[in-house]
Every structure is written in C-alpha cells, then in structure tokens.
Amino acid sequence: MKKHTFFSMALSSLLAVAVMAGCGTGNQSGAGQQPNQPQPGQEQTTPATGGGKTLTMATSADFKPYEFHDLTSGKDEIVGFDVDIAKYIGKELGYEVQINDMNFDGLVPALQTKRADFVMAGMNPTPDREKNVDFSVVYHEARNTIVIKKDSGITKLDQLAGKKVAVQLGSTQETTAKDAAKTVQGLQVVSLNKIGEIVEEVKTGRVDAAIIEDHVAKGFVENNEGLQLAPIETAESTGTAIAFPKGSEHVAEFNKVIKKMQENGEMDKLIQKWFGQ
C-alpha cells in the first residue's frame, strides 16, 4: 500500500508541474494563434499608444485619402487626411487617439451608444445627422462626382435614366442619388457598404455608374484605366466635419484647434499632402 501511495503522490506532482508549465501569463498565445486579431464581421481597433487620456475615434477606413489601411510598413495601419488631423488635435489637447474601423452606416449609432467619442470619416453635417449628433466646424470642402466606364457616354446626372447607380450606404451620396431618382426616370439606387465594392461593381458592369466624393473617386480612377469621372454640376459643396455625441464637451475644444490649424497653415499642409492641391 505504501508503494502505491508513494507512486500516486509522485504522479500527481508530475502532472501538476506539467499543467503549470503549460499555463501562460495571459500575454502568450497558442501555436498558430494571433492575439488581438479581429474576427470576420467584428470592428477593427487600432490601439492608442502612450499614456494619458484616450479618446476613441470611429471611422470607416475605406475612404482614401481620408482614411484607409496602409500595409507598406509591414503592418496594417489606418492612415489618411482625417487621421493626421485627429492626431494633431489629440496632441494639442493632450489626448491619445484610438481608432475603431467599422462600416460607415454604423458610425452615428456608435456615437449614440457611447462606443466612440468622435467620428472622422469624410462625414458631411447634414440636417438629418444633426438631429442625432453634434458637429464641429467644417474643416474641408469637397464635391460629389459620377464614376463611369470611359465608353459609357454618360457625362451628367440626367443621363442616368434607366441606369443602376451604386452609392455608399448611409452616405450623402446615397441621399443625392435617391433625390435624383425622384426626377430621373428609372434611376435605380444600389447601396453598398464599401467604396471598393462600389468601384468594382462599376468595373464589372453590374452597375452603370457610382456617385462618390470627388477626392476619393479621383484616387480610384487613377488606378483603373477603364474608368473616368463626370463632375456633378451644382453650386453646392460638400463640407466635411467631425461628429460627436449630442452634448459632447469636446466640440468647443476641437473647434479651437481646427481654427488654429486653418490659421497657422497646418490644414493647408495636410490638404496638399493628401489631395495634392
């Protein structure tokens, strides 16, 4: 009996040591696992660096040159015009900025449910959006344009009669297309989540055209020889602003830094960097 007891105790001790050796500290991952990688359908987060106060910026990083994924450094980094502005404002005000990437139509709900402190995504301060969120002053002006194939023969909005037109879900371009459909007979609006998907639909002929913000459209057309732009003739420009939850304390302090950037030339430097103008 004593031999069996001794053997059982020794075996139990060895098993305990083996279990402890296999346990990590919480920072280790198993073979083949990548920690902190988003699963399909989940929001992707770019962590803030350094210490201090942190603000969460929500965006839809498929809107080059405003915000997009850059892999040239060997890692997935969200960069762009809006990102540079957010980082400048954060530095001026003493905040670290954490970026959450999600679908465009989820941005306003993210503010309403307090999952983000602000949104920068080439967003326009429309009356409908102003019912649900607060906006900063406008920091950039742009216009909408039609993206079509070069052989389409389309040069203006009223030539889209009987055509399928792709737009981004929840965008002002979607509103523009739906408004046009009221007067342009047979115009069908196809709403999709990502700009890349929209351009691909035009390239493959599944839709006849797309309506996209001009700076963003220009970048796609430059990389696709078979596409061209047809500016939408209108006196209205599309102002871009930062969105906040209703009653946010950050609106006033962000406005001060935006005005400072416009006065000290920093905003012009970033416009030249990202838009070449």
Structural features, described:
Residues 28-56 are annotated as: Disordered. The protein is an alpha/beta fold and 277 residues long. It folds into 2 domains: 53-142 and 238-275, Periplasmic binding protein-like II (D-Maltodextrin-Binding Protein, domain 2, 3-Layer(aba) Sandwich), CATH 3.40.190; 144-230, Periplasmic binding protein-like II (D-Maltodextrin-Binding Protein, domain 2, 3-Layer(aba) Sandwich). The chain is built from 9 helices and 16 strands. The strands form 5 sheets. It has a 5-stranded mixed β-sheet with strand order 12-11-13-10-14, sandwiched between helices. A 4-stranded mixed β-sheet has the order 1-6-2-7. Strands 3-4-5 form a 3-stranded antiparallel β-sheet. A hairpin with a 6-residue loop joins strand 4 and strand 5 (77-79). Helix 2 (81-93) crosses helix 8 (250-264). The longest helix is centred in the first third of the chain and has 21 residues, at 2-22. Residues 1-42 have low confidence and may be disordered.
What are the salient characteristics of this protein?
35% helix; ligand-gated monoatomic ion channel activity; four-stranded mixed beta sheet; D-Maltodextrin-Binding Protein, domain 2; alpha/beta; 277 residues; 16 strands; 2 domains
